Amino acid sequence: MSKNITSLSERKGLVDNLFEKMGNLTEPEGILSDKDTQSLAEEYLVGDASVYGAASFYDFTRPENKGKKVYVCNGTACLCAGTQDKLKEELGRHFKKEEIGEMCCLGRCHENAAFYYNGHNYSGKLEFPGNFNSTPEKMSHEDQYNVASTGAGILTSPSPMLEDYRQDLQKVLASSPEEVLIEIKASGLRGRGGAGFPIGIKLEGCSKAKGDRKFIVCNADEGDPGSYSDRYILEKQPLKMLVGMIIAGYAAGADRGVVYIRFEYPESIEINKKAVEQLREVGLIGENILGSGFNFEFKIIEARGAYICGEETALLASIEGQRPEVRVRPPYPVTYGLFGKPTSVNNVETLANLPYILKHGGAAFAEIGTATSTGTKLVSLDSAFNKPGIYEVDMGTSLSSVVNDLGGGFRRPVKAIHIGGPLGGLIPTSKIDDLTVDFESFKNNNFLLGHASIVSVPEEFSMIAYLEHLFAFTAHESCGKCFPCRIGSVRGKEMLQKAQKEDYKIDNELFSDLLNTLQTGSLCALGGGMPLPVYNAMEYFKEELAIYFKN
Fold first, then answer.
1. Residues 104 and 138: beta-carbon distance below 8 Å
2. Disulfide: which of 83, 114, 255, 391 matches 406 by Cβ 3.0-4.6 Å?
3. pTM of the model
């Protein structure tokens, strides 16, 4: 982290944003030219190396991106579904090999065969019209998936009308920020992005911090392969999340909201831009909202492809136009965040719960779920289920009910489900009956709930190949700030590859030391969390993996 660049970037801030301009300049050719690099460096008073270092980091601004016209999803759900080789073959009829790139993940886990082309995502169809390159508008990028709920159904219920939001916000703004914060804390709402940290504590910390400007940042960079619950909210329920940000801003004393949406969700970006304008047209954002004296403005930032930006400090560095490396904490974002100002970073699903809490009261929300995991949780099911889609359940609902009742069971033999992305728990199907959908149940069984996305590992899929995929994913997505993650992920990938392709047995002690170093020495949850599913696999699939390890 460079405090100098943070301060220099703040000069133009969100209005003439360095990161946004950097991304826009790469779009014509897929790379940032030397001329544009120098121009940005001069305009923002930063070094050429700083601009190049940032631009060369992201999947869609780095030099390797030049000349790519179509991108195939390489996410875990598509990998396990086995659709992508045939997809590449089909795309090869319309594009040169060097024109086909990869991206992860497109959020089309419910039907797979996913790819990005000409500003839209497509999935589920392996046959394309002969005029693919000339008239892409004839190809439908719409997708359909099941959406249902059991219990309270807070996030899957129909979105209120704008007039309803107007009345609800009028009520909120008639209360003091302290009263709003009390309700949020009383709800017990914990972050839905993975760590489960209470949002009330974040907002309170931000409200108490000193600063002439404060920010609410929505982390809409949902990069966990297999997860598309945030995408559901961004595209089907955007006002719940945006109004939630306004409420969070009022409670924390922030007057700016930034929605950082992943490049891989192009439809989400456009939908939220339109939703912001809807709020503006009815006077729910801007200066002196509803005559309350409270001001709040939005900025939609289009990300450029980096899983590490799901980590809050790397995300903030990204918005500032810096290389998105994880920052050492303290200081925490609530005291030193975006542009060095107090900032509360929360994920999409977390913020989308706030309108319900302020309408019905924190106590009403706390009555849903369990004592320590209150409210509901969105769960996304992949194409291995008979009824894939987004399901909302009260916290504490049995995992078996999600898998068998809502998802209709598996349509093919599955030996494990990976819940919560690459850092989540790898659960053998024999353990499904032992778990409930809440933070404590998963933690007590040495798993992690995370985003609650479910990727199904088929019976025939090699477990050591799956672990290699996890190490390869971590190696590709590491920010490089700390040695354990940057080097350890590569060494793990190499060992697993060698064990499959050569007469080589992995030393148990060496592998255990590697996992321990990653878990205890990594700066953030990418390197620190990735060993969890590996440990799970070594415990529950010991016999399958034994042939690759020394006795």
1. no
2. 391
3. 0.95
